[in-house]
Structure formats: structure tokens, C-alpha cells
Design goal:
Length: 240
């Protein structure tokens, strides 16, 4: 990579990081006061829905800022892994249960989780990956659609798979969706919800764990996203 390109990438990453930090402080104040107002006993009914909107939108903004910060850390090579051995089966079950409670599109879920699958990984970052893939399946699948989740143990690696029957991704877009800020299907209605950050972060995190992530999809028919991670057995074998 040329020196100029390296400098530009560094400047972009510094810029994202600076903006995100600058946005965080006023947003914390907005969220704090909105939270206090919500507790007011005499709040007029007509103001409650406006306040709800402020709270929801600031939560959304906070999520975007956190994602941007994550991206700038990844780009600066500044993201440390804090690996520990943990039970991904239990972890996924809990994550799915609390996540599904918040979903509002009447999706039909099936979930098959192999028992007691243990991995050596950064629990917070793997949670980010799974949340990104769950949110995408939710976002890009119509009301009443289906989402199937599977976690399987293949001895030297584990595989997570999430299959939806949503809008799907064209072959051409499939080659680019893991790039930063890339949005496939530009005409998709909910443009405001889309940043093109999640899959970039997902890929980087999985690669940092020596795993693989990929997508299989057909436009109009749905998408399947998979990632693998080496098991502790495989890591021990390669490190010995
Ligand atoms: P975002 O969803 O915030 O735009 P992502 O990086 O997670 O960002 O995804 C990049 C693009 O890939 C999305 O804009 C969308 O066009 C496409 N995409 C991701 N997941 C799916 C999915 N399950 N079904 C259809 N399209 C998807």
C-alpha cells in the first residue's frame, strides 16, 4: 500500500473516531434528560409519544456512533481481542431470547443449537457479530417471513448459520456487501436504517478469530449468512 493511501486511511479513521466521540457527549445529555422526563408523573399524554420518539431516535443514534467507533478501532488496528473459553450454545440461546422479544415483524423462527458448544473467543465481539446478522435478517425480511438459525459443531470448527426468506442479494452485490459503507439494493425503502457498517465489522471480527464468513443468496428469495470459528481443540493443535 502506498504511503499516501496509508495516510488517507489513517486520516479517515481519525476523523470517524473524532466525530463519534464528539457526538457521544451531547447525546448522553439528551438521553439522560429524556430518561428523567419519562419518569415525570404529570407528563401530558400528548407529549408522551413525542418523548418516546426522542428516546428511540437517540438510542438509534447511539448505536450508529458505537458502530462507527468500532469501525475506526478496527481500521486503526486498535481492536484488542479479550479471549475466554465460554459456552456459545448457552450464550446464543440467551441472546436470541432477549433479542426476539423486541422484534415486531411476526417472523417465524426456528433455532437449532448443538449442546454445550464451547469456544475460545472474545465474547463481546462475537455477540456483536451475531447481533449484526440477526438484525440484518430481521431488517431485510418482510412481515411474517421465516428466519432459521443453526449452530453446529464440526470438531475442528463451529458453524453459525442464519437463513432468511427476505429480499435477497444479487450476485453482483454479494461480492461487495462486506465492504465498508456498501449498501446493496439501493432502492430498499428503509434507507435511514442502513449504514453499511455491520457486515464490514462482522468480517473483520471473524477474521481476527481466524474464522470465515460468507453469504449465499438469491435476489427475491432470501439470504443465508454463515461464519465459522476454530474450536479450542483446533487452536490447541495449531499452537502445539
Ligand atoms: P446495513 O444493514 O446497516 O446497511 P450491513 O453492513 O449490515 O449494513 O449490510 C450491508 C448491506 O448488505 C445492506 O445495506 C443490505 O443491502 C445487504 N444485506 C445485509 N444483510 C442482508 C440480508 N439478510 N438480506 C438482504 N440484504 C442484506
Amino acid at each position: 500500500m502506498s504511503l499516501i493511501l496509508t495516510i488517507i486511511i489513517q486520516m479517515k479513521s481519525d476523523f470517524i473516531s473524532m466525530i463519534s466521540h464528539e457526538f457521544r457527549t451531547p447525546l448522553t445529555v439528551i438521553q439522560g434528560y429524556a430518561g428523567l422526563l419519562k419518569e415525570e408523573p404529570n407528563m401530558p399524554e400528548k407529549n408522551k409519544s413525542k418523548l418516546k420518539l426522542i428516546i428511540e431516535e437517540s438510542k438509534h443514534l447511539r448505536e450508529i456512533i458505537d458502530k462507527l467507533l468500532e469501525v475506526s478501532r478496527i481500521e486503526a488496528g486498535d481492536m484488542a481481542l479479550h479471549k475466554s473459553k465460554y459456552n456459545l450454545s448457552n450464550n446464543l440461546r440467551k441472546l436470541f431470547e432477549s433479542w426476539a422479544r423486541l422484534c415486531e415483524k411476526n417472523h417465524k423462527y426456528s433455532i437449532e443449537i448443538g449442546s454445550d458448544i464451547e469456544i475460545l473467543a472474545d465474547q463481546t465481539l462475537i455477540r456483536t457479530v451475531i447481533t449484526n446478522l440477526l438484525s440484518n435478517a430481521h431488517k431485510y425480511t418482510q412481515e411474517g417471513g421465516t428466519i432459521d438459525i443453526e449452530l453446529t459443531d464440526h470438531n475442528d470448527h463451529i458453524q453459525f448459520k442464519i437463513k432468511d426468506n427476505g429480499i435477497g442479494i444479487s450476485k453482483e452485490d454479494q461480492t461487495q456487501i462486506f465492504n465498508l459503507f456498501y449498501l446493496a439494493d439501493k432502492g430498499f425503502a428503509r434507507e435511514a436504517d442502513r449504514m453499511g457498517l455491520g457486515l464490514f465489522t462482522t468480517k473483520k471480527i471473524i477474521e481476527m478469530h481466524n474464522g470465515k464468513v460468507w453469504c449465499e443468496s438469491e435476489k427475491g428469495k432470501g439470504s443465508t449468512f454463515c461464519f465459522t470459528l476454530p474450536t479450542e481443540r483446533a487452536i490447541a493443535f495449531f499452537e502445539s
